[in-house]
Amino acid sequence: MPEGLIDKIDREHLPRHIAIIMDGNGRWAEEKGQDRLYGHFHGVESVRNIVEGSAELGIEYLTLYAFSTENWDRPQQEVEGLMSLLVETIRKEVPTLNKNHIRLHVIGDLNMLPAFAQAELQEALELTSQNTGLNLIMALSYSSRWELVNAVKNIGQDIKAGKIDPETICQETLQQYLTTSKFPDPELMIRTSGEYRISNFLLYQLAYAELYFTNTRWPDFRKENLYEAIIDFQGRERRFGKTGQQIQEETQLA
Ligand code: IPE
Ligand code: IPE
Ligand code: MG
Predict the structure, then answer these.
(1) Is residue 174 part of a domain?
(2) Residue 58: left (phi > 0), alpha (psi -120 to 50), or beta?
(3) In the predicted model, what is the mean pLDDT of the chain?
(4) Can you give the CATH number for the domain in which 116 is found?
(5) What is the pTM of this model?
(6) What is the number of the ligand 2 atom nearest to the C-alpha of 139?
């Protein structure tokens, strides 16, 4: 890894929100002749390192896809092992989160989680709720289609209750019914482990995100890899449907 990669980052143009699909734990472990859970266990080290790195840089929002609604269909032993690892880690990390002013958020279908896990999470959310640094958003039992169906259901109920007029529904309305209503859309989405897909992650919110794929397996992903992704992001021209010339003119005026 080249030295001083962090110095190549333009601190004035950081993405406000980075979202990561943390993939490749199972293969990382299998390649070492180990059980898949061994990979998840080591993946936690990467989570710590990337959360720390993001907070140091001054990133405002970091969303980590930790468990999808589809992941419930994995073998029971893996699901149980992974769930207890996630919940235990979150609980144990609360003092460190507080020390670093990190506020924890959770998005996903939490009703699918066992009662004790829901209670542990709730406590961690409350204990970090006053922090004003990095917002760490854990996507747990999350999927975008679940989220969108849920949003439509809630909008339907509010129409029925006379709280909203269907005529006034706009993008802003839908945004308010998503689990991410309090967060800006991610500007950079990273997926590790060499898979080139979204796997039901933030389908609506990623509309204009820059996508970055790396072959590095999640347990090997460290701050330097994050810096590389940010540097790559900063070299791109985000056009939002306009022409390159319009964007260049706007940048000159700013
Ligand atoms: C990512 O690693 C963690 C979760 C999806 C929970 P995987 O467990 O998907 O690892 P691979 O993709 O099988 O290697
Ligand atoms: C996506 O990874 C979900 C998480 C990282 C939590 P998967 O490993 O479940 O995705 P697919 O099955 O390869 O698309
Ligand atoms: Mg995977």
Answers:
(1) no
(2) left
(3) 97
(4) 3.40.1180.10
(5) 0.97
(6) 6
